[in-house]
C-alpha cells in the first residue's frame, strides 16, 4: 500500500444575509471563494451552507438554486469533474420539508476519497436570543442548549452505521462566556439596571467606569444590542486575549478537536457593503463559525516536516463584505492508502 495525499478544502458559510442582500454582496462573496480555490487548488471541496434563502426563504429559494449553479458552472470550478448538491428546497411539501419549525439542524454526508472514508456533518445550532439572558449566568442557558444539541448530533453520527473519522463544520453559534468577560473587564464599574416602564423587566444593563471624573460606559447591554468600549480587544492579535472566554468546545475535548484559531471572531460583521471589517453592535463578537473534527480525523491530516504550517484555518473575505458571518475554511492534505 502506498500513501497518497489529496488536497481538501472545507468551507462553512452562514449565507442568510447574503440572500437578503444578493445584489450587493454576491459578486464579492463568489470572488473571494473562487480566489481561495484558485490559490490552494484543492482536489476536493466541501461547502456547508446555513440559512440558505435567508429569512424569506420562500421568496429567495430560486435565487439559491441560481447561486449554486453559478458556483458549479463557473470557469474557476471547471477542473472539477463532478458535483453533488444536497439542499432541502421543496418548502411546499410540508411532510418532507425539514425547515418548517426552525433554521437549525444538521446534515451528514459520507464520502470515500481513495480508500479513506469520511463523514462531513453540516451543523447549525441555537443562537443567543437575548444578550440580557445570556449575561445572567456563566455558562449561559443558551450555551447549555447548544451543548445538549451538539452532544445529540455527535451521538447520532457515532451510533448509526460504521463509525468513520468525521468533520463537523457549520454555524455552531458558539459565544464567548459573556458574563465572565463583562465582569473581568469592568471590575471597578458601577452597574446600572434600567427597567421597562410598563413592567418590572430589565431593559438594559449599563457598566460605567467610576475611576475618573468623566464617566465612561464600558458596556451597554440590551436584548439585541451590545455596546462596548474595548474595541481593540477584538482586533489586536486576532482577538487572542478573548479566546480564554471561548469555552463551549471544552465539554467535548475527549471526542472532538480543532486546529488553532488564529483569525478574528467570525460574527457579527456589518452588513453594510462599505464597512466590511466593522462589527455590528448587536452581539458580542464571537467565533460562531467553526470546523471541528474527531481525533481520528485529525490523524488523517498530513502535517509533514513543517508540522501545522501545511494547514490553513482562516476566514474568507477578511476585507470584503461577506454578510454578518465571515465564512471559515480549512485547507489540508488528506492521507489515504492506495
Quote the CATH topology. Answer: Deoxyribonuclease I, Chain A
Provide the succession of SSEs: EHHEHEEHHEHEEEEEEHEE
Q: Rg from C-alpha positions?
A: 21 Å
Number of domains: 1
Major pleated sheet: 5 strands, mixed
Instruction: Give the strand line-up of the largest sheet.
Output: 3-4-5-11-10
Rounded average pLDDT: 90
What is the CATH class name? Answer: Alpha Beta
Question: What is the count of β-strands?
Answer: 13
Low-confidence stretches: none
The CATH architecture can be given as: 4-Layer Sandwich
Category from helices, strands and their pairing: alpha+beta
Instruction: Tell me the CATH superfamily.
Output: Endonuclease/exonuclease/phosphatase
Count of DSSP-assigned helices: 7
The proportion of residues in beta strands is: 25-35%
Q: Can you walk me through this structure?
A:
This protein starts with a strand and ends with a strand. The chain is 23% helix and 27% strand. The protein is an alpha+beta fold. The chain is globular. It has a single domain, classed as Endonuclease/exonuclease/phosphatase (Deoxyribonuclease I, Chain A, 4-Layer Sandwich), CATH 3.60.10.10.
List keywords for this structure.
7 helices; 5-stranded mixed β-sheet; 4-stranded mixed β-sheet; 338 residues; alpha+beta
Strand and helix layout:
Layout lengths: L2 E12 L1 H5 L1 H19 L3 E7 L6 H17 L31 E9 L2 E9 L6 H4 L6 H19 L6 E6 L6 H8 L3 E7 L6 E8 L6 E7 L2 E4 L27 E2 L31 E6 H5 L12 E4 L12 E10 L1
Parallel strand pairs: 1-2, 4-5
Antiparallel strand pairs: 1-13, 3-4, 5-11, 6-7, 7-8, 8-9, 10-11, 12-13
Protein name: inositol-polyphosphate 5-phosphatase
Organism: Ictalurus punctatus
Family: Belongs to the inositol 1,4,5-trisphosphate 5-phosphatase type I family.
